[in-house]
């Protein structure tokens, strides 16, 4: 009994001591932004500015915004990373909990690549090919408006000229932001190249979304978990398979895998930066302005992140695979960071 | 006659099945260990590049910009460099950490001339080429391109690249530069968590076991408690994470990502394991000893603390160590309370944000940088060493404390 009561007093005592404010920035959010944000955090901690390195958790974009919008005060995160823009729904949730003053920072782009083993076939894909190969329902026959379960088993059935190998694509599970972005940009992009489906978008957006963004579940698309290193291992052991992952993983594994050309453009750094390579998305982070001045270093971190030697053309994040913003956009966000520009949506 | 030979054959077959089963189990273990060791062993070595320094005595060392000075000295070794691209290519062979090593060197040699070749940390890309993790294909190797390869070849021909022991791996916390990343932060975080888990769960579990076994009367209610404890031991660990989130973070408002909360959550998880082990151990103490004690006039409390518990201790400790070993390898509950995080500083106490060993393994396995692969395996080796150590302690304690009667 004595032990139990000591343990309880211990707990209560700690509970009291933790109410005081913290001196370390807490960051949550996207697993795609995580590898970049952590580099900045480490540099920020090592820089001679008197601030500690922020603590970063990888919770996914949605999970991060949920924690971020849960309220104000030291027990909530100061910053959340996102691999997509904040949704209207989330802005409302934030406002409901008293968070109305948020600053949005766009840090750059991330390309999504379809890659296979270096010794495998070299292919030229289109977004339409990807849609036809990976969607759950595809148009069947020549009649407009007729769809059925995806019948394609090999790539040359999708389009003559592609190799005669079975469709096997390793990709992230539905919880992943990469998967959302891939379905949104690559699949629905290809889907809308079919005239009647494009017309459907205006008529019945819901049906269009369902048709264009649902990934097939009958085998050819293999959910390989959130671990992209695992996908690369699988690609090297199965030469006829493809994988879907972020550009930074392609960049790190150039000697093992190669990215497929999509719509005539190879996934290179320059092609993604210029926007010629279509399958890419923007990366963001959001700052709770009420915490600026309360938690030490929040604004300094924000400005540190947006510096040219981090997110600029020759910056250290670029070495890690981030695709930089055009200079003018970057300048806008740099001044937003200084003035703590309020997000308006 | 026939029947006997049939029975003998059956016996032989049975033995063969058993042997095959053991062999299969051992070969799986061997494959796993071989895989981990063969990839992980190289992480204990680290590539260094020699830079020719020449810093005269009359320079005020605290006024030097270490990065610029180091870069200048390094570039001087390649007088043929003209373009900015070439400069960048050459400099990218040095790690970001080289700057800090140079600062250290400056501090150490305050008031002395620094000259001659000094070793500095190489970048992870170069490290992997030197270790042979990425193979050379023509003039490139992984992320090392033609531009960089010229310099690598030059350095190699002059013997200015060397593999030394990796002092970062065990002495620093996490970093996003693989060559500077270490597991010290994770090890200390794990130790704090485990210590707290032990301090909280052990006394509570032992008291609960003693009460249930020796003091409580056997009725429907105690049966209910017993069933519940047994069920609790089979609950998936993530559920304890959710419980920890609700109680320690949301109700007690303890800080997120702290080993204290991790330890308390793991304590909840190991509690049923220890209770069950302790009850079994207490039950196996011969009743004759307790009866003798009572017969000599000892009270119930005296009997329990003087005889039952000391005799049951080897069993209780074995159970506790098994529970703690299980907790050391746990990541799922730590995910819920925010210990799966990027933490650059080694925690100074149980209230500082920290990770744990299995979490570090998970985070590294998920990193895009190739060089983290070998470090992941190295971290697994350290975790395995910890587990072996714990199990050996369990065996030792059992042998040492065991009483024969």
Describe the structure.
The complex is a heterodimer of chains A (345) and B (405). In chain A, the strands form three sheets. In chain A, strands 1, 2, 3, 4, 8, 9, 10, 11 and 13 form a nine-stranded mixed beta sheet that branches. In chain A, strands 5-12 form a two-stranded parallel sheet. In chain A, α5 packs across α7, α7 crosses α9 and α8 crosses α9. Helices cover 41% and strands 17% of the residues of chain A. Chain A has 345 residues and is of the alpha/beta class. Chain A has two domains: 147 residues, Periplasmic binding protein-like II (D-Maltodextrin-Binding Protein, domain 2, 3-Layer(aba) Sandwich); 170 residues, D-Maltodextrin-Binding Protein, domain 2 (3-Layer(aba) Sandwich). By secondary structure, chain B is mostly helical. Chain B has two domains: 122 residues, no CATH class; 218 residues, Orthogonal Bundle (MetI-like fold), CATH 1.10.3720. Chain B is built from 16 helices and four strands. In chain B, α8 packs antiparallel against α13, α10 crosses α11 and α12 runs antiparallel to α13. The model of chain B has no long low-confidence stretch (mean pLDDT 89). The interface between A and B is large, with 47 and 44 residues. β2 of chain A pairs antiparallel with β4 of chain B, so a sheet runs across the interface.
Secondary-structure map:
The complex is a heterodimer of chains A (345) and B (405).
Chain A: H1 2-17, E1 26-29, H2 34-46, E2 55-57, H3 61-68, E3 79-82, H4 88-96, E4 102-117, E5 124-125, H5 127-134, E6 137-139, E7 147-149, H6 155-158, E8 169-171, H7 177-191, H8 195-203, H9 205-213, E9 221-223, H10 228-237, E10 242-246, H11 247-252, E11 257-259, E12 261-262, H12 269-274, E13 280-288, H13 298-305, H14 308-311, H15 316-319, H16 327-339
Parallel strand pairs in A: 1-2, 1-3, 5-12, 8-9, 8-10
Antiparallel strand pairs in A: 3-13, 4-10, 4-11, 4-13, 6-7
Helix pairs in contact in A: 5-7, 7-9, 8-9
Chain B: H1 2-40, E1 45-55, H2 66-76, H3 84-91, H4 98-108, E2 114-121, H5 124-131, H6 146-157, E3 161-165, H7 168-171, H8 184-215, H9 220-232, H10 237-251, H11 259-283, H12 287-295, H13 300-328, H14 332-336, E4 341-342, H15 357-365, H16 372-401
Antiparallel strand pairs in B: 1-2, 1-3
Helix pairs in contact in B: 1-16, 3-6, 8-11, 8-13, 8-15, 10-11, 11-13, 12-13, 13-16, 15-16
């Amino acid at each position: 009994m004595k032990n139990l009561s000591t343990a309880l007093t211990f707990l209560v005592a700690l509970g009291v001591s933790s109410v005081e404010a913290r001196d370390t920035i807490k960051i949550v959010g996207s697993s795609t932004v995580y590898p970049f944000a952590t580099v900045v955090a480490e540099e920020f901690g090592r820089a001679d500015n008197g601030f500690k390195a922020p603590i970063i958790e990888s919770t996914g974009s949605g999970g991060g915004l949920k924690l971020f919008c849960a309220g104000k005060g030291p027990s909530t995160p100061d910053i959340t990373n996102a691999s997509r823009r904040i949704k209207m729904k989330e802005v409302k949730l934030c406002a409901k909990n008293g968070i109305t003053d948020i600053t949005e920072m766009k840090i750059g782009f991330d390309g999504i690549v379809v890659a296979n083993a270096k010794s495998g076939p070299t292919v030229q894909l289109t977004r339409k090919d990807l849609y036809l190969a990976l969607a759950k329902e595809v148009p069947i026959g020549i009649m407009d408006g007729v769809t059925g379960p995806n019948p394609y088993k090999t790539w040359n059935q999708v389009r003559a000229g592609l190799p005669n190998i079975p469709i096997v694509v390793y990709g992230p599970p539905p919880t992943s932001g990469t998967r959302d972005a891939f379905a949104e940009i690559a699949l629905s992009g290809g889907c809308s190249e079919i005239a009647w489906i494009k017309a459907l978008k205006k008529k019945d957006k819901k049906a269009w979304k369902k048709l264009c963004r649902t990934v097939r579940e009958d085998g050819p698309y293999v959910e390989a978990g959130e671990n992209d290193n695992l996908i690369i291992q699988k690609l090297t052991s199965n030469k006829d398979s493809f994988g879907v992952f972020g550009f930074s993983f392609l960049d790190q594994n150039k000697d093992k895998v190669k990215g497929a050309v999509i719509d005539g453009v190879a996934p290179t750094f320059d092609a993604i930066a210029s926007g010629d390579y279509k399958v890419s998305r923007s990366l963001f982070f959001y700052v709770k302005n009420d915490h600026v001045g309360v938690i030490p270093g929040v604004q300094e971190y924000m400005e540190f992140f947006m510096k040219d030697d981090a997110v600029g053309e020759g910056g250290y994040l670029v070495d890690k695979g981030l695709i930089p913003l055009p200079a003018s956009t970057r300048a806008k966000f740099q001044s937003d960071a200084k003035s703590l520009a309020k997000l308006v949506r | 006659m026939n029947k006997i030979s049939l029975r003998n054959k059956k016996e032989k077959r049975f033995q063969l099945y058993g042997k095959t089963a053991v062999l299969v189990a051992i070969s799986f273990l061997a494959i796993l260990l071989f895989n981990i060791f063969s990839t992980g062993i190289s992480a204990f070595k680290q590539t260094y590049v020699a830079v020719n320094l020449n810093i005269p005595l009359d320079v005020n060392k605290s006024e030097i910009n270490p990065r610029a000075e180091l870069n200048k000295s390094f570039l001087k070794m390649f007088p043929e460099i003209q373009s900015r691209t070439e400069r960048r290519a050459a400099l990218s062979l040095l790690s970001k950490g080289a700057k800090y090593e140079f600062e250290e060197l400056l501090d150490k040699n305050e008031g002395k001339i620094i000259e001659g070749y000094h070793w500095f940390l190489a970048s992870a890309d170069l490290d992997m080429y030197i270790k042979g993790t990425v193979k050379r294909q023509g003039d490139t190797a992984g992320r090392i391109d033609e531009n960089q390869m010229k310099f690598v070849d030059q350095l190699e021909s002059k013997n200015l690249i060397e593999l030394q022991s990796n002092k970062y791996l065990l002495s620093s916390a996490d970093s996003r530069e693989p060559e500077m990343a270490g597991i010290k932060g994770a090890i200390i975080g794990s130790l704090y968590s485990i210590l707290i888990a032990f301090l909280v769960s052990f006394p509570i579990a032992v008291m609960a076991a003693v009460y249930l076994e020796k003091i409580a009367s056997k009725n429907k209610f105690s049966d209910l408690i017993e069933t519940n404890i047994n069920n609790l031991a089979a609950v998936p660990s993530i559920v304890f994470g959710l419980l920890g989130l609700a109680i320690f973070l949301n109700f007690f408002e303890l800080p997120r990502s702290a080993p204290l909360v991790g330890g308390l959550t793991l304590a909840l998880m190991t509690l049923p394991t220890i209770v069950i082990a302790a009850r079994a151990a207490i039950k196996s103490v011969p009743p004759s000893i307790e009866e003798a004690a009572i017969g000599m006039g000892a009270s119930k409390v005296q009997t329990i603390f003087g005889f039952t518990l000391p005799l049951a201790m080897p069993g209780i400790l074995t159970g506790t160590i098994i529970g703690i070993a299980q907790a050391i390898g746990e990541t799922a509950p730590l995910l819920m309370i925010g210990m799966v995080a990027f933490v650059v500083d080694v925690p100074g106490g149980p209230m500082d944000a920290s990770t744990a060993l299995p979490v570090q393994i998970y985070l590294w396995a998920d990193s895009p940088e190739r060089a983290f692969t070998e470090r992941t395996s190295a971290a697994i080796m350290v975790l395995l060493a910890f587990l072996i150590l714990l199990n050996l302690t369990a065996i030792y304690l059992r042998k040492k404390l065991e009483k024969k009667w």
